[in-house]
Amino acid sequence: MMVQSSSLYLIPLMPLLAAGLIAVTRQPHRRFAASLAIGAMGISLLLSISAFVSTLGQTSAGAARSFSNFDWLQIGPATLRLGWVLDPLSAIMLVMVTFVGLLIFIYSVGYMAHDDNFTRFFCFLSLFAAAMLGLVIANNLLLLFMCWELVGLASYLLIGFWYHKPSAAAAAKKAFITTRIGDVVFLLGIVWLYSQAGTLLFYDHGHGCLEHLKLSELAGRTTVGGLAVSTGIGLLIFCGAIGKSGQVPLHVWLPDAMEGPTPVSALIHAATMVAAGVFLVARVYPLMAEPIPAPVGFVSAPFISALPVVAWVGAITAVFAACIAVAQTDIKRILAYSTVSQLGFMMIGLGVGGVAVGMFHLITHAFFKALLFMGAGSVIHGCHEEQDIRRLGGLKKYMPVTFATYAIGMMALSGVPLFFSGFWSKDGILEAAHTWKPSQGPFYLAAFGALLTAFYMTRQVCYVFFGNYRGAKGDHSHAADSLHGGEPHESPRVMTMPLAILAVFAVVLGFIGTPAWPWFQNYLGGENLPSGVGELFRHDVLYTILISTVIVTVGIGLGWRLYGGKPVTNPNEVDVLERWRPDIYGLLRNKFYVDELYEVTVIRFNAWFAAFCDSLDYWVWNGAVLAVSYLIVGIAWVDRVFDEYVINLGFDESCKGIADGGRLFSRLQNGRVQNYLRVIGVALAALVIFLVWGRKAS
Amino acid sequence: MQFAFAIIAALTLVSGIAAMSLRNLVHCALCLAVTFAGLAAMYLQLHAQFISFAQVLVYIGAVAILVVFAILLTRSGEPVTHPVVHSSWIVGVIIALLVFGVLTKVILSSSISSAALHPLPPKDGPSVREIGNSLMIDYVLPLQVIGLLLTAATIGAVIIAMHEPKISQPPASTPRVNGAEVPHASGHSAELTHHP
Amino acid sequence: MIPLQNYLIFSAMLFSVGLAGALTRRNAILVLVGIELMLNAANLNFVAFWRFSSDPNAMAGLMFVLFSIAIAAAEAAVGLALIIAIYRHYKTTNLEKVNSLKG
Amino acid sequence: MIGDLIHGIFLMIWRTLTDQPEAKSDFLAVFPTAVQPVVSAVLTVSPLLAGFGLLFALTTLLERKGLGRIQNRLGPNRVGPCGILQPVADGLKMITKEDIIPRTADRVVHLLAPIALVVPTVLAFAVLPYGRYLVPMVNDAGILFFFAVGASTELSVFMAGWSSRNKYSLLGAMRAIAQMISYEIPLIISSVSVIMIAGSLSPVEIVQAQGSWLAGGFVPHWYVLTPWGLTGFIIFLISSLAESNRSPFDIPEAESELIAGHLTEYSGFKYALFFLAEYFGTFAIGGLAVTLFLGGWHAPIEALEVIPSYVWFVLKLMALVSLFIWIRGTVPRLRVDQLLNFAWKFLLPMSLLNLIVAGIWHFTAVWDFPCALLVRWALCAAMIAVPYTLLGRALNAKRNAAHRTYRYAT
């Protein structure tokens, strides 16, 4: 069965139905909920693969694209139309989301096995999957935005899943509000786009806002400061992506979001949702990349498209987050900052190289980062909810499967040459940045970021898996672990199986996009790049391969030298780097004090403004209301006096009369049914007498 | 024919009076059943077979049983020491007599007693098929309404008679035993009943 | 043949008996029984009038009685349920003691 | 005159035995017109009572013998050859025993109760068609009549129980009434499906509607051979077991719990009357089952129609009675809550469903594609079987969930 674009909605519908059904399922029906969610996801995966297959074998991106639109709302003369689109971009995302999602669903069965709110968890997961898939297939910026917000909602619900933990509740709120800031700007962009283009459909037989007709129209117009309209809109939309993808300066929510259950971190905050920002940029890429007809006074057109902004933001984020990651001690937090950093890489890729470069890294990253997160989850699960890497250690011995898969993920993330997917995708980004005309800045930043990545991943692996176990043994505080004593233990198969599958993909996925065989780029871009082993030895390619090999080697070597050579033995031991430069290390450990900066600036301003509004309310508006109320009370008093002495005197008398009458009649209403019956009997007789004889007499 | 009518009428009336005047409520209920049976016989005499059977089915088969159940459930079947009628029962009787007098006067003085109103030539009344057709064609709306009414009444009766939370139950016995307790219990059987 | 008025007078008697019972008895159940008797008397009237009507195809009398029987059944069920509920509340079915709207 | 009389009698007997119409006409012609209805009624009623009386005697013997065999004993075997005269001995014993009335009993009601019980059960015989021309009372609304008089037995049971002033009697009577009311509903609804399909309330017409054969005269057109008819028949059978207070629904008379229920305080002839009424009730309801579902007096194969029709009726009735006896010997008694739950939660929904299925059966009769009969069968059978399974599972699941504790058991 080939999935047509018209039946594309079935893919998000499946998890949505599952979410709805699970929502009405009672808590004890765990097996039902899990199998429903997994089954729905499986069906979605099959449908997605079918859709994916149907896009293969097309020569150009335009030919592979099919969409179906329908009328949604009729507002006056304007008709709002929604639709689905199936093109290589959405197809590859569909497969990735459903596949990784399915594995994470399966993994969650093991991870959440002891949780009381098991069914609720699967309800939220399914809801999230539905929203994400809807986002991917949307052919309308508005529909995309709706799903975008739904994704945000699901993320909020899942981060705050353990809402009884104050930190989780706070993290959920933080994530929700921070991303909302980006979303407001995004919405502004949507509104602007609608007012300028008159449509929000991406593709609509030549009339969509991403098609040539509208694009050139948009690029032709200018707004304040000589900025092209398309650039302005692109920048606004990019703000949404900044929020969602945790780019600087809105990255603060992502590390905190690690308070959620680990499968959530893997699914939402590593593989799919955060990638939504990158996907958004890729989706509206034509808008950002549209060459702007150079107005008078500007020499080089690309400088005023939105892409350089994307590239620079990404580059800064990549390094910034990587630096922070170096000094973190929480296993998931390191991965979180790593995610932020890698998202920055994707943005660089999009900014300097195009859709295929960024998306390739997105896909490979989704797999190995999900792998890493799930591996971290496995570690946490096996070590009695311990997340501090200083209290772990030596797990190589206890959890061989987790170690092996984690190591693969780590090498993929670090970009160990040739055999790991991360290498090829990151290499593509570096190469594109290197050949980027406007500046070499992003290239250097990215290279430094890659170095740091290799370093901090090595540090983490050394801490967690080498040396001796530093956690408290024989600690029975965790009720579920009473069976296993205090020893770390390998996770159940339902958790390790997805790890293994993901590990396989973390390796092989790289080969679909090597310079020697750029299938992925061809597929996504619809171009036909040259292929062959010889491509590897082209000047630029070889250069970047060598550079990155050096970088990775240096990073890993440095990490191994500092942390692997003589393993840490005491959990309270001071970090090697801290011993070396406590000031910088402190700065990094405290995440460059960004949270604190926001605390003293944005949040304080907000609080001050709220207090101001409050006092305004209290003194000014309240005063006015009070004055009016006193006036009314005065009038009422006059009224009352009039009432009491003029009207009531007369009224009281008549009331008294009525009351007396009522008292008289109430003797008839004595509650004795038979008295009533008697009256009815008498009345019956009287009526008959009247009717028969009364009539006759008249 | 006249003779049969007279017998049936007398039986019905006597049992009706008994149903209204006996001291023991269970006897009243049984007499009521006899009255219903007499009325059913009268319908038969009027060639309204279907009505007659329905009368037996509903009144004797259901209403009389319901009354019996109600009597037992409210312990009304036990002997009472106080008078069973009102202090002012004479008023009721007078009113009833008044109504009867008026009705009789009306019947006797109306045109139907003088005019030659002849019953239909003896036949077996309408067949069941005719009644059915009539119910399903001419009277289908009332039939539906009656169905609705019966449903509502059933639900209502169940809800009304359902057990309330036991706040003021006498501690001596459970309701189940109440229902089954020998009605006008002489001493020893009452004791037996309260045996745990 | 029995003339119509015999039925009518008999039904009037039955009606009055029912009325007298409903008016004089203290027990709520018997009041209900009296009402049932009155209903039956009315039914008899319907059937008698149907039988003596000049239109051979008229069915209204019969139908009315059928419906009235159905309604009487519903009424008896609800009425007796009410009496049982009242009994639970007041511990009596004596209507002279059941005369307040609230307990 | 006398010659006419004797000729009339012989003619009447001959015509009755050979299944001919108007058996009584020649005999009645001898009498003056005024007494003819009375004579006719006597002629109808007396053979009926005699026949069923005989059948009653036979059935008590059959039951005691059959139960004996089931329980691996001999049963009555002293009176007459193989104990065949046992019913006579029983009857003599019953009649000659002292009639004890408890001192506190309500004498009048106590006396009237057995009579009030026997009368309706005998009345119920009036409308059943026993043979092609053997119908005591041809009535348009015969089935309604049957159920109406059947319903009035409940009051008699109450009279018996209440008047005895014995708590076992009263408990037994109340249980019996609750049971009879409960099972009357599935009983009536399952017969309504037959009434609906046959389009008549008249037993005679219902039997006529079943008087044809399929497949060359070998498959009778009985209602029991349709999916709804089979279901209805089973529901009818179960309900009739309960209606006639037979095991496994003999809770009102459960010896071990209630001594003998409302029969506790009865002895001698009155007890015999109760006994009689119970068996008559079984015959009547069995006869109705035969009429409604088993084709009445029709032969199962067309060629066998030459055998007089009443033989078939009696054979079918005896088969049903034997089935009742068999069930009594096999199935243990239910608890009273199980009994009522079974009626309200299982039989009632199933009989309502059966009514719907009967309607579907009726309206799919117009199908004429190949294998239409098979498709109809499958459809209707599935419509019954699937809810049956689901309902049964649901009810059973609930029962298994609760762990039963016996408070007073050690």
General description of the model:
The complex is a heterotetramer of chains A (698), B (196), C (103) and D (410). Chain A contains 27 helices and two strands. Chain A has helices at 10-23, 30-55, 61-64, 88-111, 118-137, 141-159, 166-197, 212-220, 229-244, 253-256, 262-271, 273-283, 285-289, 307-326, 331-353, 355-382, 395-398, 400-414, 421-434, 441-465, 493-508, 519-525, 539-564, 576-580, 582-589, 594-666, 673-697; strands spanning 66-75, 78-86. Chain A has a two-stranded antiparallel ribbon. Chain A is elongated, with a radius of gyration of 34 Å. By secondary structure, chain B is mainly α. Among the domains of chain B are: 1-76, NADH-ubiquinone/plastoquinone oxidoreductase chain 6, subunit NuoJ (Four Helix Bundle (Hemerythrin (Met), subunit A)), CATH 1.20.120; 127-162. Helix content of chain B is 70%, strand content 0%. Chain B has nine helices and no strands. In chain C, helix 2 (28-51) runs antiparallel to helix 3 (60-90). Chain C has a domain at 26-90. Chain C contains three helices and no strands. With 103 residues, chain C is mostly helical. Chain D is mainly alpha-helical and 410 residues long. Chain D has three domains: 2-46, no CATH class; 47-96, no CATH class; 98-361, no CATH class. Chain D has helices spanning 2-17, 25-28, 36-70, 86-96, 107-124, 142-151, 153-163, 167-198, 203-209, 227-243, 255-258, 268-293, 309-330, 336-363, 372-401; strands at residues 213-214, 219-220. Chain D has a two-stranded antiparallel sheet with strand order 1-2. In chain D, a hairpin with a 4-residue loop joins strand 1 (213-214) and strand 2 (219-220). In chain D, helix 3 runs parallel beside helix 13 (309-330), helix 5 (107-124) runs antiparallel to helix 6 (142-151) and helix 8 (167-198) runs parallel beside helix 14 (336-363). Classes of the chains: A mainly alpha (698), B mainly alpha (196), C mainly alpha (103), D mainly alpha (410). Chains in contact: A-B, A-C, B-C, B-D.
